[in-house]
Amino acid sequence: MNLSSTTDGNRRVVTVNESRIDAAVALTFKEQMRTETESGPDTVILDLQQVQFVDSSGLGAIVAAMKTMGKGRTLALAGLNPTVSKVFQLTRMDSVFQLFPTLDDALDSLDA
């Protein structure tokens, strides 16, 4: 699992540099997200632009990453393709996470 991150003022952007978040990488994803988000800004944007597929284990790993961040912190998701977005809609996780079509949309919205 390849994640990278940048911090811009009061936000951290964590980019998933893989095409899948599934059972094969879910545990590694959770651990790396914990490392990337354990300190730093309260607002974290998970950039999923390169992700083409998320299964139930991947969805669970994203939810676990949000819970690990703790109260008072925000995990927003950006760059979901239609297939990945549909997973969040069908599971109603779109009511749990703020979803943005692009990273720029997330940055602009979370600036306001």
From TrEMBL:
PANTHER family, per database record: ANTI-SIGMA FACTOR ANTAGONIST TM_1081-RELATED (PTHR33495:SF2), ANTI-SIGMA FACTOR ANTAGONIST TM_1081-RELATED-RELATED (PTHR33495)
Domain STAS: 21-110
PROSITE patterns cross-referenced by the UniProt entry: STAS (PS50801)
One Pfam family it belongs to: STAS
Coiled-coil stretches noted in the UniProt entry, renumbered to this chain: none
Protein's name in the database: Anti-sigma factor antagonist
Domain of life: Bacteria
Family note: Belongs to the anti-sigma-factor antagonist family.
Lineage: Bacteria, Pseudomonadati, Pseudomonadota, Alphaproteobacteria, Rhodobacterales
InterPro entries, per the entry: Anti-sigma_ant, STAS_dom, STAS_dom_sf
